[in-house]
Amino acid sequence: MTVKEAWRRIVPSRTIPRTRWRSEGSRWRTGPTTFVVLVVGLWLFGTGEALLVDAALGNAPWTVFAQGISLRTGISIGLATFFTSVAVLLLWIPLKEKPGLGTIANAVVIATALQVMIIVLPAPTAFGWQLLQALVGIVCVGVGSGLYLTTNLGPGPRDGLMTGIHERTGIAVTPIRLSIEVAVLAVGWLLGGAVGLATLLFALLIGPSVGYGLRLVGWIAGSSAEVPRAEDDVHPELEA
Length: 240
Known about the structure:
By secondary structure, the chain is mainly α. The chain has one domain. It is 67% helix and 2% strand. It contains ten helices and two strands; from the N terminus they run αβαααααααααβ. A two-stranded antiparallel sheet has the order 1-2. Helix 3 crosses helix 4 (77-90), helix 3 runs parallel beside helix 9 (173-190) and helix 4 (77-90) runs parallel beside helix 8 (157-169). The longest helix has 24 residues, at 32-55.
């Protein structure tokens, strides 16, 4: 094994591994294995977001936004997350983006998992345990992303918004995503959503977490082939 090959094995993956459960062809029709992987991945994603909420050290940007809406309206944070996803999907219409089964499942499963797991998971008060729980949450989001992305059943609502703007304007995806995340975080914070240390950690670590999540899923699937992504600079991990 060369040094280059060894290095590629330990760095985060920038592509999506071609797994045996990957859906080919239609984004709306798939087999039971692919569907199970999709749901498990999205549920794990939502669980990671719930871990961050219960850690009480600050949330991911979109969860800050959903929490702010929840505090202002009295609806649950899970329901606020779902309504946010629906609103973002409506913005796909002028952008002419096309959804898939994964798009709809993303909105429903993540919102449900977030609401259910917030109730089930512990809410530590000691800083050390809070920090550990936040880090575990980031890992869960990364692995969950690695699972659902390999199903090839369509982007989540927020990724579709970003890529749609990119395709219509020609602006690079990185500044588009950054602008969206900053705007959402700012509005969520003004609405009362929790911003803190975990928010910063999420911003710094979620990219590598998804990269390693994809590499782990590829290893579990025994996959060596990878599917190049035109949006390698996209952060699909921020789809909660």
